[in-house]
Write a structure and sequence with these properties.
Distance between the termini: 15 Å
Strand order of the largest sheet: 2-1-3
Number of domains: 1
Protein name: HTH merR-type domain-containing protein
Pfam families: MerR_1
Organism: Oceanidesulfovibrio indonesiensis
Helix content: 40-55%
Number of helices: 7
Structural class: alpha+beta
Number of strands: 3
GO molecular function: DNA binding
Order of helices and strands: HHHHHEEHEH
GO biological process, one term: regulation of DNA-templated transcription
Radius of gyration: 16 Å
């Protein structure tokens, strides 16, 4: 099984590795605001096991929520813009090293911009300054995320390589 998808962490381990209080994640799950693979897979007595990908989802959603993006919209941005676009090709292989996930995000700047009632998501190589000089957005209109460091921290907290 792909180590990114292997359900081997407890709920608390996954939440804390992502830097989020377990009670916060429980509220998001109870309200249906975030989708995690563990929600679909339960062990014998109803205990769920979470994957490293679940912890990455939680961490990325939390960073967007810190910037005042509603949880359900942050979850959609993470799923469509980050997991599907950047990680999708890594999930199909059985033995993708977790280091490859971090490498897929190296030097990638993720930008989230409010667009009416929704949010626009894009990515680019480079820095915040490069994006602004290109006239893509003004500094106050764009939220910049470097997920490489966030994901590296999650893996360190989970004690996986």
């Amino acid at each position: 099984m792909n180590p990114l998808l292997e359900p081997r962490f407890t709920f608390t381990e996954a939440a804390l590795a992502a830097g989020v209080k377990p009670k916060t994640v429980r509220n998001w799950l109870d309200r249906g605001q975030i989708h995690l693979d563990a929600e679909e897979q339960r062990e014998g007595e109803g205990w769920r096991r979470f994957s490293a990908l679940d912890a990455l989802r939680i961490a990325a959603v939390a960073r967007l929520v810190e910037r005042c993006i509603p949880v359900s919209k942050a979850s959609r941005i993470v799923e469509v813009g980050i997991i599907n676009r950047r990680c999708g090709h890594l999930l199909v292989y059985e033995k993708t090293p977790l280091k490859a996930v971090v490498a897929a995000f190296t030097n990638i700047v993720f930008c989230v911009c409010e667009n009416g009632d929704d949010y626009f998501f894009s990515e680019a190589y480079g820095s915040k300054l490069d994006l602004i000089e290109l006239g893509l957005h003004t500094e106050k209109d764009v939220m910049i995320f470097l997920l490489e460091n966030i994901f590296r921290e999650v893996f360190e907290n989970l004690e996986v390589e």
